[in-house]
Design a protein that fits this description.
Layout: H1 9-30, E1 36-39, H2 53-60, H3 65-70, E2 74-82, E3 85-92, H4 98-110
Length: 111
């Protein structure tokens, strides 16, 4: 919490402007009917006991963080294994399009 006191109000306001612009761009890109499919993580799951903590979190959330920032609905689905470790895909819809995302995920899982 002490680090939060180091952030100036103007910097926070600028960051929120960037967030709103990103959300608007993603909403325009995906519209009302598109769903984006992307890797859920940049690497397969790690073996328990390998890298952990903040270092691993930064790596594993690199591809999901932009959609979290936009407030976009996202579903992650397992799609197989690589070297015995699970690999997933994330499906992303525009903010407010949860029903579209759910329908796409059901169709993807059925296929």
């Amino acid at each position: 919490m002490s680090r939060g006191f180091e952030i100036r109000g103007i910097d926070y306001a600028r960051a929120r402007d960037v967030q709103r612009d990103w959300t608007a761009s993603l909403t325009r890109l995906l519209g009302d009917r598109a769903v984006l499919a992307a890797p859920a993580t940049p690497i397969p799951a790690t073996v328990i006991g390998d890298r952990e903590g903040a270092e691993l979190a930064r790596v594993m959330t690199r591809l999901t963080a932009p959609f979290n920032l936009a407030g976009a609905p996202v579903l992650s689905l397992p799609i197989g294994k690589l070297d015995g470790l699970p690999v997933g895909i994330q499906l992303v819809a525009a903010p407010g399009r949860e029903s579209l995302l759910w329908a796409a995920a059901k169709g993807f899982a059925a296929a």
